[in-house]
Design goal:
AlkZ-like, 4 strands, Winged helix DNA-binding domain-containing protein, alpha+beta, 18% strand, elongated, single chain, two-stranded antiparallel ribbon
Length: 137
């Protein structure tokens, strides 16, 4: 549902919009709700929410934090690499120490790369680097 639709439904029961917004934020942060961008393209956002158990039935929200960070950083690196540590901290909302520890625990062999669009050290998995260098240019 769109957040405005949720607000409207709850307003009909005398729950004020600010309280609904706080409840949505808390439910999202705790994993009860999942944010879904239902826009048709990358240049837009159509913010909807759904019950996490309905849209992600196999999601384990009770993982130890260290395991969750490891899995998050591994997936982030795989999908968005090359990445800087600064980008990873901004994207994840985690501290630099947590990002580095997660990458270390992930046991992904990292390759440092340079790019003309960044002065930061960038990293990608050795596997993705091999795929990149083998791809036809």
């Amino acid at each position: 549902m769109f957040h405005r639709d949720i607000e409207t439904r709850l307003a009909a029961t005398a729950i004020p919009a600010p309280m609904t917004r706080l409840a949505l934020k808390l439910a999202w942060e705790r994993g009860t709700l999942t944010y879904l961008n239902t826009a048709g393209g990358w240049n837009r956002e159509v913010r909807t929410f759904a019950l996490t158990r309905d849209v992600c039935p196999g999601l384990d929200t009770c993982l130890p934090a260290s395991v969750a960070v490891e899995q998050l950083m591994s997936a982030y690196l795989d999908r968005y690499g090359p990445v800087s540590i600064r980008d990873a901290t901004w994207w994840s909302g985690l501290s630099r120490a947590a990002v580095l520890a997660g990458l270390d625990r992930a046991a992904v062999k990292l390759v440092e790369v340079r790019a003309p669009w960044s002065t930061s050290r960038l990293y990608m998995s050795a596997e993705r680097f091999t795929q990149f260098t083998a791809a036809p240019h």
